Amino acid sequence: xxxxxxxxxxxxxxxxxxxDWRLFKLGRMLDLEVLTEEFVPRDAPWPITPPERVxxxxxxxxxxxxxxxxWRLIDEYGTESFTREEDGTLLFRREFPDKEELLRWVLxxxxxxxxxxPAELRMELKARLKKLxxxxxxxxxxxx
Length: 144
Description:
By secondary structure, the chain is α+β, with helices and mostly antiparallel strands. The chain has helices at 51-54, 70-77, 99-107, 119-143; strands spanning 2-5, 8-15, 20-25, 59-65, 82-84, 90-96, 113-117. It has four helices and seven strands.
């Protein structure tokens, strides 16, 4: 079956290598071939592999977004994924599989997102941004 999850398309199918049902991301399928080999259809379990088995989410985050990020939040996580605050910002609470996933996701929103919690990751994000700033700041100074 074709399945749309986590903002991507997947093929839910039987993996002969692992002898179990798996989600295969279509965008990662390379060098496909059409074979003449036939297979016996299997009854796929439904619902498919639970998301928590594929991507266990254990890191709770709170992120404040500018209103311009609304449609992306809806596209990726649905209309119930945030609350609109009195000042117009959007408060988003969700669990993520790990800190790298969370930090990459927050950074992808650029100035439209502010990581509020967890505090230690907010500090780590600040340190990474400082290193990035220093990298580009020195390159600009050196070239002038």
